[in-house]
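debug: dumping io for the single-chain case to check the tokenizer round-trip. Nothing else runs in this session.
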Amino acid sequence: MIMTYSKHLAYTLLIEDSDADAKLFNSVLKCQHFTGEIKRVKNGRQALAFFEQYADNLPAVILLDLNLPDINGTDLLRWIKSNPILKRIPIVVWSGAVQEHEKQMCKRLGVSKLVVKPIEIELLERHTRWFASFWNQL
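debug: decoded output
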């Protein structure tokens, strides 16, 4: 499988199993005037298939939930970071309860940002403002 990265066809890949969390994230991003495209897969297996199917048009950014139902998100993160092409894509880990060892692993693997899913809407808005700004700098 040959993978390439094309900035002119940029989009974000959201790897998130929760429909409610994905909908909330998209809604808040729209409020932040985020205009980038977001494609979504719901689990690790779909993510692996996605990377194979779209090897000629990879995402500009990956938003990854670590708590996926099939392939553990930390295993998927390690796999992405071990791939010579995929490892160049910035990753924002967007996850619920994150253990200390997971935080350290994210730091060691060069994750761009680790966001623990907030319950307060103000905190979610702050994180999505950061993401929209991050996107605009790509």
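debug: round-trip ok. The first helix runs from residue 19 to 31.
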